[in-house]
Every structure is written in structure tokens, then in C-alpha cells.
Amino acid sequence: MILSNTINIRYKYKTGGMNTKEMAQLLKYYRLKGFLKSTNTNSFIVAVLPEDKAHNRKVLNELKGLVQ
Fold it and tell me: Highest taxon of the source (predicted)?
């Protein structure tokens, strides 16, 4: 993945005070595609290729528990 081809997307998710390393491990477990840039208590920012946006939205809905 070439970072100049990516877009930064902010995902709303209550991280529960996790640091960037812990959040990266969680996202890797759920197979979110992209590069985690930063986190805060209510959201995180990921550099994502445009073609992976839809996949990441499905993963995030699974992570939030919206999809079984």
C-alpha cells in the first residue's frame, strides 16, 4: 500500500481508552484494511485505499455488534 494513494477516514468507535498499539491489534484481529494513524476516546483515523472503504465499513459494523 502506497500511502500517497490512501485517504484518511475517521471511524466513530468508543475505544475505551485503548492506546494506538492495542487498537491496532484489535483492528488486525477483525481484518480491517489500512494503516492506523491515531486514536482518541471516541474515534480513530485510518489511512485506507479507496477500494477498501466498503470492506472496512462491514468490519466496523461487525465490531460494533450491528451485524451478526
Answer: Bacteria
DSSP string, 16-28: TT--HHHHHHHHH
Distance CA 66, CA 20 (A): 24
Cα-based distances in Å from 17 to 28, 52, 68: 18, 26, 25
DSSP-derived 3-state class of residue 35: strand
In whole angstroms, what is the distance from residue 17 CA to residue 31 CA? Answer: 21
| Model confidence, pTM | 0.86
Residue type, 23: M
β-strands 43-48, 7-12: how paired? Answer: antiparallel
